[in-house]
Design a protein that fits this description.
- The N and C termini lie far apart (43 Å).
- With 466 residues, the protein is an alpha/beta fold.
- It has 19 helices and eight strands.
- The longest helix has 26 residues, at 220-245.
- The chain binds iron/sulfur cluster (SF4).
- The site of iron/sulfur cluster has 11 residues, from α9.
- Iron/sulfur cluster is lined by residues 134, 136, 163, 165-166, 375, 409-410, 412-413, 415.
């Protein structure tokens, strides 16, 4: 790692950047224009967020609070638990812990800190992680492996489907940093009693682990209040999903990122509710005025991202959609699979409800929720079985009137690379064009954005979509 990169504490730096960015609209236009001159690598990303108005500002505030929680955790007597986006933070908040989610921190770094994030990724390899490990964890994890972040107290993850690279990254981090480690198993099936009972016992063991690490008793009353807050969040998310169904939709492409990033950071926490309310208010205003979510004012095409979005430098991908007049109906990360969403009708057995009537019921709810998180839900086995990747994508593409489906992942994602071609062929047989992107969502050294953009343009032209 270059010496200059080692000069910065990663959490402090990202927290300061997002905090300053959230304050930008409070200044004069001249101040904002001058600030943009000094941030060449994330000028468009910041501009795109701020152009959304109150939702973008609230999103930046939320990210800055996420970092502040991390940088002040130990001063407040709290412990930091490193975890994954495939595991809900709700139970950690109920335990009074500060979650630190590697993938979220990598995505933020990939968007704003071009000159450092790649050094972190490579540092992971220098100390023993394979180059083919998922860049989603390896980016920010590199900073912690190099001692450039806050001290992690312990690590909790789950095994997201068959994703060996994800699970191994956390096991590696625990071993390298010499930290206590707990790994939840993934449910082999979703919704049946035997697997559910097993999963609840697994969560009880995890709570035992958290109690041992913190020396505190787990409070089911606190869990109940977080679950109730989540009920409010899920209701707003369902309203946003309804508006995504409209053609044209009043939802801008970047909203879907805000919906899932907020959930990964603050599910069940009022911080996320505040942001969702702002998203809904702005979208409703646009819907009532009959204004599409796209800046171009015209919706020319609708895409469904069947996997994840493209996050590298400056969020070029969202700007690309805006420029071309393409509505983003969401990705595998967008949906929460709560039973109050319209898509649950088309995906029988895939959704879950919330029950706070007893401690056991609450744990069952959390277990069911975790089982619906990305990858755990639909990429945990054969792609063409009931309720899995193919089923889910076809149902969503039809419901949201998607004109095409786009795959974008990471180089390390062996579980999707192993099945994406037959998956794409099966979807094409149903009359929906599919494009496979060959970049890495977090590392644009794999394929430059310019090349990705050209391939996207070629796909839309050759298939007669634009
Ligand atoms: S993006 Fe792919 S490789 Fe990375 S955690 Fe998800 S399934 Fe695993």
């Amino acid at each position: 790692m270059r010496a200059e990169v080692k000069e910065y504490n990663y959490d402090w730096m990202m927290g300061s950047i997002t905090e300053a960015a959230a304050k930008l609209p409070a200044g004069s236009q001249k101040e904002a224009d001058l600030s943009f001159r000094y941030i060449p690598y994330f000028r468009y990303a910041l501009g795109a967020l701020l152009e959304t108005g109150p939702p973008g500002v609230q999103f930046l505030k939320m990210l800055s609070h996420y970092y502040k929680n991390i940088t002040t955790a130990h001063d407040q007597g709290k412990k930091i638990v490193a975890t994954t986006f495939c595991s809900t933070p709700l139970i950690f908040y109920a335990m009074g812990l500060v979650p630190l989610t590697f993938e979220v921190l990598t995505a933020v770094g990939a968007m704003v800190w071009k000159r450092g994030m790649f050094d972190y990724m490579d540092y992971g390899c220098e100390v023993g992680m394979p180059e083919t490990s998922c860049s989603a964890q390896r980016g920010s994890l590199g900073a912690y492996l190099a001692g450039l972040g806050e001290t992690i107290d312990f690590i909790v993850c789950d095994s997201p489907g068959v994703c060996d690279t994800n699970a191994t990254a956390f096991a590696f981090a625990a071993e390298y940093l010499d930290k206590p480690f707990f790994q939840l198993n993934y449910p082999s099936t979703i919704g049946d009693e035997r697997s559910q009972a097993y999963h609840v016992e697994d969560f009880k063991a995890m709570i035992g682990f958290l109690e041992k690490q913190t020396g505190k008793k787990f409070s089911y009353d606190r869990l109940e209040s977080y679950l109730k807050e989540m009920e409010a969040q899920d209701a707003i998310t369902a309203d946003l999903e309804d508006m995504l169904l409209l053609v044209p939709t009043p939802i801008p492409p970047i909203y879907t990122l805000m919906i899932y990033a907020g959930r990964f950071c603050f599910a069940g926490h009022p911080e996320y509710t505040r942001m969702l309310e702002k998203l809904r208010n702005e979208a409703q205003k646009r819907m009532k005025a009959g204004v599409p979510g796209l800046k171009a004012g015209v919706e020319r095409l609708r895409v469904l991202m069947c996997y994840i979005d493209h996050y590298t430098v400056d969020m070029n991908f969202y700007n690309y959609l805006e420029e071309r007049g393409i509505a983003n109906t969401g990705s595998i990360l967008t949906r929460n699979f709560r039973d109050n969403n319209p898509y649950c009708q088309s995906l029988e057995g895939s959704c879950y409800g919330v029950d706070t009537s007893s401690p056991e019921a609450m744990l069952e709810t959390v277990a069911q929720m975790n089982a619906r998180l990305p990858m755990v839900r639909s990429i945990r086995g054969p792609y063409d079985q009931h309720g899995m990747w193919l089923d889910e994508c076809l149902a969503l593409a039809r419901l949201y009137n998607a004109d095409c489906i786009i795959y974008n992942g990471t180089s390390g994602c062996r579980n999707t690379w192993g099945m994406v071609k037959p998956f794409a062929r099966d979807i094409e047989k149903q009359g929906i064009p599919v494009h496979i992107m060959y970049d890495d969502a977090f590392d644009d050294r794999v394929e430059s954005w310019e090349a990705s953009k050209e391939r996207l343009d070629e796909f839309f032209t050759v298939r007669g979509l634009l």
